[in-house]
Amino acid sequence: MPSPNEAACLRACHECAVACLQCATACLREPDPKPMAHCIALDLECADLCQLAVASIARGDEQVTAICTLCAQACSRCAAECGKHDMDHCKRCAEACKRCADACGAMSN
Amino acid sequence: MPSPNEAACLRACHECAVACLQCATACLREPDPKPMAHCIALDLECADLCQLAVASIARGDEQVTAICTLCAQACSRCAAECGKHDMDHCKRCAEACKRCADACGAMSN
Amino acid sequence: MPSPNEAACLRACHECAVACLQCATACLREPDPKPMAHCIALDLECADLCQLAVASIARGDEQVTAICTLCAQACSRCAAECGKHDMDHCKRCAEACKRCADACGAMSN
Amino acid sequence: MPSPNEAACLRACHECAVACLQCATACLREPDPKPMAHCIALDLECADLCQLAVASIARGDEQVTAICTLCAQACSRCAAECGKHDMDHCKRCAEACKRCADACGAMSN
Protein backbone atom coordinates (compact mmCIF):
# COMPACT_ATOMS: atom_id res chain seq x y z
CA MET A 1 0.00 0.00 0.00
CA PRO A 2 1.25 3.50 -0.71
CA SER A 3 2.30 5.71 2.19
CA PRO A 4 0.20 8.88 2.83
CA ASN A 5 2.81 10.92 0.93
CA GLU A 6 2.70 8.50 -1.98
CA ALA A 7 -1.09 8.41 -2.06
CA ALA A 8 -1.24 12.20 -2.08
CA CYS A 9 1.38 12.39 -4.80
CA LEU A 10 -0.37 9.81 -6.99
CA ARG A 11 -3.54 11.90 -6.85
CA ALA A 12 -1.78 15.23 -7.39
CA CYS A 13 0.22 13.92 -10.34
CA HIS A 14 -2.89 12.50 -11.99
CA GLU A 15 -4.84 15.70 -11.53
CA CYS A 16 -1.93 17.74 -12.81
CA ALA A 17 -1.46 15.58 -15.92
CA VAL A 18 -5.15 15.95 -16.73
CA ALA A 19 -5.18 19.72 -16.09
CA CYS A 20 -2.08 20.19 -18.25
CA LEU A 21 -3.51 18.29 -21.22
CA GLN A 22 -6.86 20.03 -20.89
CA CYS A 23 -5.02 23.36 -20.80
CA ALA A 24 -2.95 22.48 -23.87
CA THR A 25 -6.07 21.54 -25.83
CA ALA A 26 -7.92 24.66 -24.71
CA CYS A 27 -4.91 26.85 -25.56
CA LEU A 28 -4.87 25.39 -29.08
CA ARG A 29 -8.56 26.28 -29.46
CA GLU A 30 -8.04 29.94 -28.47
CA PRO A 31 -8.67 32.41 -31.32
CA ASP A 32 -4.95 33.23 -31.30
CA PRO A 33 -2.86 30.37 -29.85
CA LYS A 34 0.48 32.07 -30.60
CA PRO A 35 0.87 33.71 -27.16
CA MET A 36 0.06 30.30 -25.64
CA ALA A 37 2.79 28.37 -27.45
CA HIS A 38 5.14 28.33 -24.47
CA CYS A 39 2.29 27.34 -22.18
CA ILE A 40 1.35 24.45 -24.48
CA ALA A 41 4.95 23.21 -24.64
CA LEU A 42 5.30 23.26 -20.85
CA ASP A 43 1.89 21.60 -20.45
CA LEU A 44 3.00 18.65 -22.60
CA GLU A 45 6.33 18.23 -20.82
CA CYS A 46 4.69 18.47 -17.41
CA ALA A 47 1.90 16.02 -18.27
CA ASP A 48 4.40 13.42 -19.47
CA LEU A 49 6.49 13.72 -16.30
CA CYS A 50 3.35 13.52 -14.14
CA GLN A 51 2.23 10.31 -15.85
CA LEU A 52 5.73 8.86 -15.43
CA ALA A 53 5.66 9.82 -11.74
CA VAL A 54 2.31 8.03 -11.30
CA ALA A 55 3.73 4.85 -12.82
CA SER A 56 6.96 5.17 -10.90
CA ILE A 57 5.27 5.61 -7.51
CA ALA A 58 2.87 2.75 -8.20
CA ARG A 59 5.72 0.42 -9.18
CA GLY A 60 7.96 1.57 -6.32
CA ASP A 61 10.79 2.43 -8.70
CA GLU A 62 14.33 2.75 -7.35
CA GLN A 63 14.62 6.27 -8.78
CA VAL A 64 11.13 7.40 -7.77
CA THR A 65 12.42 10.28 -5.66
CA ALA A 66 14.54 11.68 -8.49
CA ILE A 67 11.62 11.32 -10.90
CA CYS A 68 9.35 13.22 -8.51
CA THR A 69 12.00 15.94 -8.06
CA LEU A 70 12.17 16.42 -11.82
CA CYS A 71 8.38 16.38 -12.03
CA ALA A 72 8.19 19.07 -9.35
CA GLN A 73 10.48 21.29 -11.44
CA ALA A 74 8.33 20.84 -14.53
CA CYS A 75 5.24 21.61 -12.46
CA SER A 76 6.78 24.80 -11.08
CA ARG A 77 7.75 26.04 -14.55
CA CYS A 78 4.31 25.24 -15.91
CA ALA A 79 2.59 26.91 -12.94
CA ALA A 80 4.67 30.06 -13.49
CA GLU A 81 3.76 30.23 -17.19
CA CYS A 82 0.07 29.39 -16.73
CA GLY A 83 -0.08 31.95 -13.94
CA LYS A 84 0.60 34.70 -16.50
CA HIS A 85 -2.66 34.02 -18.34
CA ASP A 86 -6.23 34.86 -17.36
CA MET A 87 -8.10 32.00 -18.99
CA ASP A 88 -9.84 29.57 -16.65
CA HIS A 89 -7.97 26.59 -18.10
CA CYS A 90 -4.65 28.26 -17.30
CA LYS A 91 -5.74 29.18 -13.78
CA ARG A 92 -6.94 25.63 -13.09
CA CYS A 93 -3.71 24.23 -14.53
CA ALA A 94 -1.53 26.58 -12.47
CA GLU A 95 -3.31 25.48 -9.30
CA ALA A 96 -2.95 21.78 -10.15
CA CYS A 97 0.73 22.31 -10.97
CA LYS A 98 1.39 24.06 -7.65
CA ARG A 99 -0.30 21.28 -5.69
CA CYS A 100 1.66 18.68 -7.64
CA ALA A 101 4.98 20.46 -7.13
CA ASP A 102 4.29 20.41 -3.39
CA ALA A 103 3.27 16.75 -3.36
CA CYS A 104 6.28 15.73 -5.44
CA GLY A 105 8.57 17.76 -3.21
CA ALA A 106 7.21 15.94 -0.16
CA MET A 107 8.29 12.62 -1.70
CA SER A 108 11.92 13.41 -0.95
CA ASN A 109 11.31 14.16 2.74
CA MET B 1 -14.57 20.67 -18.68
CA PRO B 2 -15.04 16.92 -18.86
CA SER B 3 -18.57 15.48 -18.97
CA PRO B 4 -19.67 13.34 -15.99
CA ASN B 5 -18.84 10.20 -17.99
CA GLU B 6 -15.41 11.57 -18.83
CA ALA B 7 -14.70 12.63 -15.26
CA ALA B 8 -15.66 9.19 -13.97
CA CYS B 9 -13.54 7.51 -16.61
CA LEU B 10 -10.51 9.68 -15.89
CA ARG B 11 -10.67 8.65 -12.25
CA ALA B 12 -11.33 4.98 -12.94
CA CYS B 13 -8.49 4.75 -15.47
CA HIS B 14 -6.05 6.39 -13.07
CA GLU B 15 -7.03 4.12 -10.20
CA CYS B 16 -6.82 1.08 -12.45
CA ALA B 17 -3.37 1.99 -13.78
CA VAL B 18 -2.10 2.39 -10.23
CA ALA B 19 -3.71 -0.85 -9.02
CA CYS B 20 -2.28 -2.77 -11.99
CA LEU B 21 1.27 -1.53 -11.43
CA GLN B 22 1.05 -2.13 -7.68
CA CYS B 23 -0.24 -5.64 -8.42
CA ALA B 24 2.59 -6.32 -10.89
CA THR B 25 5.21 -5.22 -8.36
CA ALA B 26 3.60 -7.25 -5.57
CA CYS B 27 3.35 -10.32 -7.84
CA LEU B 28 7.07 -10.05 -8.60
CA ARG B 29 7.77 -9.99 -4.86
CA GLU B 30 5.79 -13.19 -4.18
CA PRO B 31 7.94 -16.13 -3.06
CA ASP B 32 7.10 -17.86 -6.34
CA PRO B 33 6.15 -15.37 -9.06
CA LYS B 34 5.89 -18.03 -11.80
CA PRO B 35 2.12 -18.60 -11.40
CA MET B 36 1.70 -14.80 -11.54
CA ALA B 37 3.52 -14.31 -14.86
CA HIS B 38 0.31 -14.01 -16.88
CA CYS B 39 -1.15 -11.65 -14.29
CA ILE B 40 1.95 -9.44 -14.44
CA ALA B 41 1.87 -9.31 -18.25
CA LEU B 42 -1.80 -8.32 -18.27
CA ASP B 43 -1.19 -5.76 -15.51
CA LEU B 44 1.45 -4.01 -17.61
CA GLU B 45 -0.65 -3.97 -20.77
CA CYS B 46 -3.69 -2.73 -18.87
CA ALA B 47 -1.79 -0.01 -17.03
CA ASP B 48 -0.36 1.36 -20.28
CA LEU B 49 -3.78 1.47 -21.93
CA CYS B 50 -5.28 3.13 -18.84
CA GLN B 51 -2.62 5.86 -18.88
CA LEU B 52 -3.19 6.38 -22.60
CA ALA B 53 -6.93 6.64 -21.96
CA VAL B 54 -6.34 9.30 -19.29
CA ALA B 55 -4.28 11.37 -21.72
CA SER B 56 -6.72 10.80 -24.56
CA ILE B 57 -9.78 11.86 -22.55
CA ALA B 58 -7.97 14.91 -21.18
CA ARG B 59 -6.87 16.00 -24.68
CA GLY B 60 -10.26 15.21 -26.25
CA ASP B 61 -8.67 12.93 -28.87
CA GLU B 62 -10.61 12.12 -32.02
CA GLN B 63 -10.24 8.40 -31.34
CA VAL B 64 -10.94 8.60 -27.62
CA THR B 65 -13.93 6.24 -27.81
CA ALA B 66 -11.94 3.55 -29.63
CA ILE B 67 -9.09 3.93 -27.13
CA CYS B 68 -11.51 3.51 -24.23
CA THR B 69 -13.07 0.45 -25.89
CA LEU B 70 -9.66 -1.16 -26.20
CA CYS B 71 -8.84 -0.17 -22.63
CA ALA B 72 -12.07 -1.79 -21.42
CA GLN B 73 -11.05 -5.05 -23.09
CA ALA B 74 -7.64 -5.00 -21.41
CA CYS B 75 -9.33 -4.27 -18.08
CA SER B 76 -11.73 -7.19 -18.49
CA ARG B 77 -8.91 -9.60 -19.31
CA CYS B 78 -6.86 -8.38 -16.37
CA ALA B 79 -9.85 -8.57 -14.01
CA ALA B 80 -10.49 -12.16 -15.07
CA GLU B 81 -6.90 -13.20 -14.43
CA CYS B 82 -6.52 -11.30 -11.16
CA GLY B 83 -9.84 -12.77 -10.03
CA LYS B 84 -8.24 -16.24 -10.05
CA HIS B 85 -5.78 -15.31 -7.31
CA ASP B 86 -6.39 -14.83 -3.58
CA MET B 87 -3.76 -12.20 -2.80
CA ASP B 88 -5.05 -8.82 -1.67
CA HIS B 89 -3.18 -7.01 -4.45
CA CYS B 90 -4.92 -9.17 -7.05
CA LYS B 91 -8.35 -8.67 -5.47
CA ARG B 92 -7.86 -4.90 -5.36
CA CYS B 93 -6.64 -4.91 -8.93
CA ALA B 94 -9.56 -7.02 -10.16
CA GLU B 95 -12.00 -4.58 -8.55
CA ALA B 96 -10.26 -1.54 -10.07
CA CYS B 97 -10.22 -3.26 -13.47
CA LYS B 98 -13.94 -4.03 -13.33
CA ARG B 99 -14.80 -0.44 -12.41
CA CYS B 100 -12.55 0.83 -15.20
CA ALA B 101 -14.04 -1.54 -17.78
CA ASP B 102 -17.48 -0.19 -16.87
CA ALA B 103 -16.37 3.45 -16.99
CA CYS B 104 -14.60 2.95 -20.32
CA GLY B 105 -17.63 1.16 -21.71
CA ALA B 106 -19.82 4.11 -20.74
CA MET B 107 -17.65 6.39 -22.89
CA SER B 108 -19.15 4.94 -26.06
CA ASN B 109 -22.75 5.50 -24.96
CA MET C 1 13.19 -11.98 -31.10
CA PRO C 2 10.67 -9.92 -33.06
CA SER C 3 9.42 -11.24 -36.39
CA PRO C 4 10.32 -9.21 -39.52
CA ASN C 5 6.87 -7.57 -39.40
CA GLU C 6 7.33 -6.70 -35.74
CA ALA C 7 10.84 -5.34 -36.27
CA ALA C 8 9.62 -3.16 -39.15
CA CYS C 9 6.68 -1.94 -37.08
CA LEU C 10 8.84 -1.12 -34.05
CA ARG C 11 11.04 1.07 -36.25
CA ALA C 12 8.15 2.71 -38.10
CA CYS C 13 6.27 3.47 -34.88
CA HIS C 14 9.34 5.02 -33.29
CA GLU C 15 10.09 7.18 -36.34
CA CYS C 16 6.47 8.24 -36.55
CA ALA C 17 6.27 9.19 -32.87
CA VAL C 18 9.39 11.32 -33.26
CA ALA C 19 8.19 12.95 -36.50
CA CYS C 20 4.80 13.74 -34.94
CA LEU C 21 6.29 15.40 -31.85
CA GLN C 22 8.81 17.33 -33.94
CA CYS C 23 5.96 18.45 -36.18
CA ALA C 24 3.83 19.53 -33.21
CA THR C 25 6.69 21.59 -31.78
CA ALA C 26 7.48 23.14 -35.16
CA CYS C 27 3.79 23.94 -35.75
CA LEU C 28 3.67 25.75 -32.39
CA ARG C 29 6.67 27.83 -33.46
CA GLU C 30 5.06 28.95 -36.73
CA PRO C 31 4.28 32.69 -36.88
CA ASP C 32 0.57 31.80 -36.89
CA PRO C 33 -0.08 28.38 -35.31
CA LYS C 34 -3.89 28.70 -35.52
CA PRO C 35 -4.23 26.90 -38.89
CA MET C 36 -2.01 24.15 -37.45
CA ALA C 37 -4.14 23.46 -34.36
CA HIS C 38 -5.80 20.37 -35.84
CA CYS C 39 -2.43 19.11 -37.04
CA ILE C 40 -0.92 19.55 -33.57
CA ALA C 41 -3.82 17.71 -31.91
CA LEU C 42 -3.51 14.78 -34.32
CA ASP C 43 0.29 14.76 -33.90
CA LEU C 44 -0.05 14.33 -30.13
CA GLU C 45 -2.67 11.58 -30.38
CA CYS C 46 -0.66 9.74 -33.02
CA ALA C 47 2.63 10.00 -31.11
CA ASP C 48 1.05 8.55 -27.97
CA LEU C 49 -0.43 5.61 -29.87
CA CYS C 50 2.89 5.00 -31.63
CA GLN C 51 4.76 4.88 -28.33
CA LEU C 52 2.14 2.52 -26.90
CA ALA C 53 2.49 0.32 -29.99
CA VAL C 54 6.28 0.18 -29.50
CA ALA C 55 5.84 -0.96 -25.90
CA SER C 56 3.08 -3.39 -26.82
CA ILE C 57 5.06 -5.07 -29.61
CA ALA C 58 8.17 -5.29 -27.43
CA ARG C 59 6.19 -6.87 -24.56
CA GLY C 60 4.23 -9.16 -26.85
CA ASP C 61 0.90 -7.90 -25.50
CA GLU C 62 -2.23 -10.02 -26.02
CA GLN C 63 -3.97 -7.07 -27.69
CA VAL C 64 -1.00 -5.96 -29.77
CA THR C 65 -2.86 -6.39 -33.06
CA ALA C 66 -5.78 -4.26 -31.93
CA ILE C 67 -3.39 -1.60 -30.64
CA CYS C 68 -1.58 -1.52 -33.98
CA THR C 69 -4.89 -1.29 -35.84
CA LEU C 70 -5.86 1.74 -33.76
CA CYS C 71 -2.40 3.22 -34.24
CA ALA C 72 -2.71 2.79 -38.02
CA GLN C 73 -5.96 4.76 -37.95
CA ALA C 74 -4.35 7.60 -36.01
CA CYS C 75 -1.43 7.59 -38.45
CA SER C 76 -3.75 7.78 -41.45
CA ARG C 77 -5.67 10.72 -39.99
CA CYS C 78 -2.46 12.53 -39.12
CA ALA C 79 -0.97 11.85 -42.56
CA ALA C 80 -4.09 13.28 -44.21
CA GLU C 81 -3.95 16.46 -42.13
CA CYS C 82 -0.18 16.96 -42.44
CA GLY C 83 -0.49 16.34 -46.18
CA LYS C 84 -2.53 19.55 -46.48
CA HIS C 85 0.39 21.71 -45.35
CA ASP C 86 3.54 22.72 -47.22
CA MET C 87 6.00 23.01 -44.36
CA ASP C 88 8.87 20.53 -44.32
CA HIS C 89 7.98 19.27 -40.84
CA CYS C 90 4.47 18.43 -42.03
CA LYS C 91 5.73 16.68 -45.16
CA ARG C 92 8.20 14.61 -43.16
CA CYS C 93 5.49 13.77 -40.62
CA ALA C 94 3.01 12.76 -43.32
CA GLU C 95 5.58 10.40 -44.84
CA ALA C 96 6.42 8.85 -41.46
CA CYS C 97 2.71 8.45 -40.69
CA LYS C 98 2.04 6.68 -44.01
CA ARG C 99 4.91 4.27 -43.47
CA CYS C 100 3.71 3.60 -39.93
CA ALA C 101 0.12 3.03 -41.03
CA ASP C 102 1.39 0.43 -43.50
CA ALA C 103 3.65 -1.27 -40.96
CA CYS C 104 0.88 -1.33 -38.33
CA GLY C 105 -1.56 -2.69 -40.89
CA ALA C 106 0.86 -5.53 -41.70
CA MET C 107 0.79 -6.60 -38.05
CA SER C 108 -2.72 -8.02 -38.49
CA ASN C 109 -1.80 -10.12 -41.54
CA MET D 1 16.01 18.76 -37.15
CA PRO D 2 17.76 16.97 -34.31
CA SER D 3 21.49 17.50 -33.77
CA PRO D 4 23.79 14.47 -34.25
CA ASN D 5 23.77 13.91 -30.47
CA GLU D 6 20.00 14.09 -30.37
CA ALA D 7 19.59 11.75 -33.33
CA ALA D 8 21.92 9.21 -31.74
CA CYS D 9 20.11 9.51 -28.41
CA LEU D 10 16.67 9.09 -29.99
CA ARG D 11 17.82 5.84 -31.59
CA ALA D 12 19.61 4.53 -28.49
CA CYS D 13 16.65 5.31 -26.22
CA HIS D 14 14.24 3.56 -28.57
CA GLU D 15 16.43 0.48 -28.86
CA CYS D 16 16.93 0.41 -25.10
CA ALA D 17 13.21 0.69 -24.35
CA VAL D 18 12.51 -2.20 -26.71
CA ALA D 19 15.36 -4.35 -25.32
CA CYS D 20 14.20 -3.70 -21.74
CA LEU D 21 10.60 -4.69 -22.42
CA GLN D 22 11.66 -7.76 -24.40
CA CYS D 23 13.96 -8.70 -21.51
CA ALA D 24 11.17 -8.24 -18.94
CA THR D 25 8.82 -10.44 -20.93
CA ALA D 26 11.49 -13.10 -21.47
CA CYS D 27 12.42 -13.02 -17.76
CA LEU D 28 8.77 -13.63 -16.86
CA ARG D 29 8.74 -16.65 -19.18
CA GLU D 30 11.80 -18.24 -17.56
CA PRO D 31 11.08 -21.50 -15.70
CA ASP D 32 11.90 -19.70 -12.45
CA PRO D 33 11.43 -15.93 -12.72
CA LYS D 34 12.15 -15.27 -9.02
CA PRO D 35 15.89 -14.55 -9.49
CA MET D 36 14.89 -12.18 -12.32
CA ALA D 37 12.48 -10.07 -10.26
CA HIS D 38 14.97 -7.23 -9.75
CA CYS D 39 15.93 -7.33 -13.41
CA ILE D 40 12.26 -7.09 -14.45
CA ALA D 41 11.65 -4.15 -12.12
CA LEU D 42 14.67 -2.25 -13.48
CA ASP D 43 13.66 -3.11 -17.06
CA LEU D 44 10.25 -1.50 -16.57
CA GLU D 45 11.64 1.63 -14.93
CA CYS D 46 14.32 1.99 -17.60
CA ALA D 47 11.91 1.44 -20.50
CA ASP D 48 9.56 4.13 -19.21
CA LEU D 49 12.38 6.66 -18.82
CA CYS D 50 13.69 5.80 -22.30
CA GLN D 51 10.28 6.40 -23.86
CA LEU D 52 9.98 9.69 -21.97
CA ALA D 53 13.44 10.69 -23.22
CA VAL D 54 12.41 9.96 -26.82
CA ALA D 55 9.36 12.19 -26.47
CA SER D 56 11.32 14.88 -24.65
CA ILE D 57 14.10 15.05 -27.24
CA ALA D 58 11.59 15.07 -30.10
CA ARG D 59 9.60 17.92 -28.49
CA GLY D 60 12.71 19.86 -27.48
CA ASP D 61 11.62 20.00 -23.83
CA GLU D 62 13.16 22.60 -21.54
CA GLN D 63 14.24 19.88 -19.12
CA VAL D 64 15.46 17.44 -21.76
CA THR D 65 19.01 17.34 -20.38
CA ALA D 66 17.84 16.50 -16.87
CA ILE D 67 15.50 13.82 -18.25
CA CYS D 68 18.37 12.26 -20.20
CA THR D 69 20.60 12.36 -17.12
CA LEU D 70 17.99 10.47 -15.13
CA CYS D 71 17.50 8.06 -18.01
CA ALA D 72 21.25 7.39 -18.12
CA GLN D 73 21.18 6.48 -14.44
CA ALA D 74 18.32 4.02 -14.96
CA CYS D 75 20.18 2.53 -17.92
CA SER D 76 23.35 2.07 -15.88
CA ARG D 77 21.48 0.33 -13.06
CA CYS D 78 19.66 -1.91 -15.51
CA ALA D 79 22.88 -2.74 -17.40
CA ALA D 80 24.58 -3.71 -14.13
CA GLU D 81 21.73 -6.03 -13.14
CA CYS D 82 21.26 -7.59 -16.60
CA GLY D 83 25.03 -8.06 -16.79
CA LYS D 84 24.79 -10.55 -13.90
CA HIS D 85 22.68 -12.96 -15.95
CA ASP D 86 23.69 -15.28 -18.78
CA MET D 87 20.50 -15.33 -20.81
CA ASP D 88 20.66 -13.81 -24.28
CA HIS D 89 17.82 -11.39 -23.54
CA CYS D 90 19.75 -10.05 -20.55
CA LYS D 91 22.98 -9.72 -22.52
CA ARG D 92 21.22 -7.87 -25.34
CA CYS D 93 19.49 -5.63 -22.82
CA ALA D 94 22.72 -4.86 -20.96
CA GLU D 95 24.37 -3.83 -24.24
CA ALA D 96 21.44 -1.62 -25.24
CA CYS D 97 21.42 -0.04 -21.78
CA LYS D 98 25.14 0.75 -21.93
CA ARG D 99 24.80 2.37 -25.35
CA CYS D 100 21.82 4.37 -24.13
CA ALA D 101 23.60 5.51 -20.97
CA ASP D 102 26.43 6.81 -23.16
CA ALA D 103 24.10 8.53 -25.62
CA CYS D 104 22.07 10.12 -22.81
CA GLY D 105 25.25 11.23 -21.09
CA ALA D 106 26.40 12.94 -24.30
CA MET D 107 23.22 15.05 -24.27
CA SER D 108 24.56 17.15 -21.41
CA ASN D 109 27.86 17.95 -23.16
From TrEMBL, chains A, B, C, D:
Position of the signal peptide: none
Protein name per Swiss-Prot or TrEMBL: Four-helix bundle copper-binding protein
